[in-house]
Amino acid sequence: MLFGAPGSGKGTAGKIVAEQLHLPHISTGDLLRAHVAAGDEVGEKIRHLMGAGRFVADELVNRIFLDRTAEADCVNGFILDGYPRTIAQAQVLVSELAARRVTPVVIHLQVDYNKITARMAGRRTCAKCGAVYNVESRPPKVDGKCDLDGTDLVVREDDQEEVVSARLASYDRVTRPLVDYFRTAVSRLHSVDGNNAGPLELAERIRELVGKA
Fold first, then answer.
1. Which of the chain's ends, N or C, has fewer CB atoms near its CB within 10 Å?
2. What's the pLDDT tens digit per position in 138-162?
3. Per 3-state DSSP, what percentage of the chain is helix, strand, and coil (rounded to 5)?
4. Is residue 199 within 8 Å of 6, Cβ to Cβ?
5. CATH number at residue 146
6. Which residues, other chains included, contact 88 with Cβ-Cβ below 8 Å and sequence gap of 6+?
7. Which residues form the catalytic set?
8. How many domains does the chain have?
9. 110 CB contacts (<8 Å, ≥6 apart)?
């Protein structure tokens, strides 16, 4: 489980680790968007809630993630990115993993909020596939274009400075308390300093920690 403030690098590092270990990378945003795009029953519920400006309830988020991690490609493990976000979600997940006899490794990425704000200001996202770049640390090969499909890169609304500040405040209030919860709920909790580490360095550090007995 990777968690940390928005912009801490968990998404990019998580995808690298997942590719290196040949494990599925399961992120909150990707999973919710997939259901909405599929137009299934769960997707319609999510679309309605988000359209009304409401959060997706813990019960529904838990259901989505537990169903996904029970699929065949997760039998040898998986990388969770952005889930759980609340203590209520974490309690359900830890209980379910214990029932499956799965020992979770929790990686907490710590990055100074000033660095996060500057980092997210330079972030660019592919409007089609969702690939993320940074004009300073991970620029695309062609300025303004996605390496994967050539689609124009955009600045997402939630990467704007005022939105970033609001997201960090929400993280402090809702998700940061998970650090204290995990200290007693799991046997393997590691904190990683991500202030000066690039995605590849972060990924290597995460792989080292995951590999420890």
1. C
2. 899 999 999 999 999 998 877 888 8
3. 50, 15, 35
4. no
5. 3.40.50.300
6. 58
7. 10, 85, 123, 156, 167
8. 1
9. 4, 8, 191, 192, 193, 194, 195
pTM of the model: 0.79
pLDDT at 213 over 60: no
Residues 54 and 114: their CA atoms lie apart, in Å, by: 28
Q: What is the DSSP letter of 79?
A: E
Q: Which amino acid is at 130?
A: G
**Token pair of 59 as six digits:** 């019960």
For the chain, give the percent of residues with pLDDT over 90: 54
Output the six-digit token pair for 157: 């609304």
Phi then psi dihedrals of residue 106, to 5 deg: -105, 125
Task: Compare 140 and 52 and report the one with higher pLDDT.
Answer: 140
Determine contact, residues 104/123, Cβ cutoff 8 Å.
no
Helix (H/G/I), strand (E/B), else coil: 177? coil
Q: Which domain holds residue 128?
A: 2-211
- C-alpha triplet 93, 97, 100: angle, nearest 5°: 145
Return the SS3 of 110. strand
